[in-house]
Design brief:
Layout: H1 4-16, E1 20-27, E2 31-38, E3 50-53, E4 59-61, H2 67-75, E5 77-79
Antiparallel strand pairs: 1-2, 1-5, 2-3, 3-4
């Protein structure tokens, strides 16, 4: 089982590759969802948002628009971690 702190480390590493950082975290039943932005907090088109599976730690893209991902986002809750 992947805990939030571990998922944050995974996401920070992922976003750092594109000179981005985490700007929002949501938690759903099976996933942590991470949204990223650059240093100016510009959120660009075609963002590299991700979801991390809580069981397997698998990282996958979280692309919107997507009916499946909108449903997942609607069912999730935003986490304040700062």
């Amino acid at each position: 089982m992947v805990e939030l702190n571990e998922a944050i480390r995974i996401a920070e590493t992922y976003f750092a590759k594109n000179n981005e950082h985490i700007v929002q975290i949501n938690e759903a039943d099976e996933f942590f969802i991470f949204f990223g932005a650059n240093a100016k907090e510009d959120i660009k088109f075609g963002r590299s948002d991700i979801k991390i599976n809580k069981t397997t730690a698998e990282v996958s893209r979280f692309v919107l628009p997507s009916a499946e991902n909108f449903k997942l986002l609607k069912m999730s809750k935003q986490i304040e971690y700062w």
